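Each record in this resource describes a single protein on a pair of labelled lines. An example record follows, reproduced without changes.
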Amino acid sequence: MTEPLIVANCSGFYGDRLAAMREQLEGGKVDVLTGDYLAELTMLILGRQKMKDPAAGWARTFLRQVQDCLDLIRDTGVKVVSNAGGLHPEGLAAELRNLGLTVATVSGDDVLGRDVGVPGELLTANAYLGCWGVVRALDSGAQVVVTGRVTDASVVVGPAAWHHGWSRADLDCLAGATVAGHLLECGTQATGGNFSLFADLPEGTIDHPGFPIAEIAADGTSVVTKHPGTGGVVSVATVTEQLLYELTGTRYGGPDVITRFDQVRLEQEGPDRVRVSGALGLPPSGRLKVATNRLGGFRNQMVLPLTGLDIEAKARVLTRQLEPVLTPIAEVDVRLARTDHPDSADQEVSAALLHVTVKDPSKDAVGRAFTGPVVELGLASIPGFHSTAAPPAASAYGVYAPGWIDAADVPAVVGLPDGSTVEVVWEPVDGPADDGADVAVAGLPSGETVRVPLGQVTGARSGDKGGAATLGVYAREQQAYDWLAAFLTPARLQDLLPEAAGLDVTREVLPHLSAVLFQIHGILGEGAASGTRFDAQAKSVGEWLRSRLVDVPVELAGPVSRSGPGQEL
C-alpha cells in the first residue's frame, strides 16, 4: 500500500497571500503543492483581461510565487499543481518553462461558441474538467502542472489518484479525495480563517493562520493539518465550516464522482489534526457544469448619509428629488441602511446610509448623467446633505450563468513537456445506485426556553453559487443538533432572514456533521459580478443569522463549549 500523499495548499483565491507558497515549502515536508486561483468572478476578470491582451488570461500572482520559490521547488522536487492557467494555460506554461521547469498543461475546457444552454453573447464559457487530465500530466514526468477550468478539488484529486494508482472505478477513494480537495481549496478557511467561533479562541490565534495540508491515504481518507508553529487552528469545528462552505447539496456532483457529503465523519486525532473519513462515491452523471460570463452593461453607485433626526422623511425627499434622474435608467436599486443610532456621541454612528445603485446598457446613462444631478442637490435638498465620496465613474459589470454540456464531448487536452498533446476522454463508470434515503428529523422538544442569539448554540458559514446563497449551520454541541434540525426549517429561516421571504429556499440535513445546509435561490440576483446587494457574495449571511434572537431550550443555552460538534477547538 502506498504511503499517504502530503498535499499542501498555497492559495484560496486570486489575490491570496503571496508568501503562502514559501511558507508551505519551508514549513515542513510537502509532496504536492496546490493552489486555487479561479472563481466565478475571476473567470470574468480574466476574460476582460484577455479581451485587451490575447496573451493574458492567467493568474500572474502564481508566476510571482514560483519565481520567489524557484530554488525551493527545484531543491525539494515538490510537484506543483494549480489552476492558475485560467483562460490561457499555455501562456503561463511558457513563462514557467523560461524558468527552467518541466511543465505540462491541462486545457480543453474552453467551450465558447458551443451550445451549453445559456442564451446571449458570452465572453467566457468553460467546462469544469475532472482529475484525469492532471493524472496524465503527472504521468509525463512534469514537475509543474497548470490547468484551465478544472473543478477546484481536481488539483488535489488528480495528484492523489496518480500517487495511489486509483482507477475511475475507485469511486469511494475519489470521493474521499474530493472532500480533501474541498477542504484545501479555500486555503486558510480550514485553519481558522473566517471562523464563526473565533471569539472563543485564544486572542491572536487567527491573526496569521497557516495554510492547510491534507495527508491523503490510499483508501481516500485523509488527515487535515498544518505545519507546526504556524498560526490558526485545525479543529472539527474549523473543518466542519469549510466542509459546509459553498456546498450545493449532500450529493456533490463532479466530473469524476458524485460525493456523498452526508456520510463524511470528522474526528479530532490530535492537536491541529482532524481525520476525515466516510465519504461515499456514486458514478458521475456524464454532464459537465459550464461557467459562463457575459458583459451585462455598466453600473454606478452613490451613497448619501442621512444624519440625525427624521431619517425616513429625509429618504423620501431624496427619493422624490432623484426620481426624474432615475426613471430613464434600466435598473435602479435604492436602499436605506439604518446604521444610525439615536443620541449618538459620534456623528458617523448617528447616520443612516442611502445607497443608490444604477445599471444600464449605456455607459453614459450611469455616468455624469446620473452623478451630476445628484451633486446638483448639494444646496437644494435635505439638511446635512453630502455623499461619502466624490462622484465615481461608471464601470462595466458581467453576468454569470451556469450551463451544461456532455462530458463525452469535452476531452481534456494535456500538453506534455515534450511539446506534444494527448486527449483524455471521459469514460462512463458503473457503481452503486444512490439509496436516496430520507433522514428522519425529530420534533421540537417541549420545555422551558430562553431567548438568545442563535449563534450561542451554532456556528455557520455562508457563500455564493451564482445567484444563490449557500448557508451551512451546525450545532456547537452534539446534543443541540436535534433541536437545530427541528427548529431551523426553510420557513423559519425566511422568518429570521426576511430578505429570503418569497424566494426558493431548500434544506438538507447532515447528521454526522450536526449540520443543516440551505440554498437561498435568487437572493444574489444574477450573481456577484452584477449584484447590487450589500454583501454581494453572501459571505456574512451566516453571521447575520447567528445574530438573530431565537427561543432555545434552557438546557442548551447555558454556558457552552464553543468548539463545534462535541470536539475541542
Observations:
- The first strand starts at residue 5 and ends at 9.
- Residues 311-326 form the longest helix (16 residues).
- The mean pLDDT is 95.
- The chain has 15 helices and 25 strands.
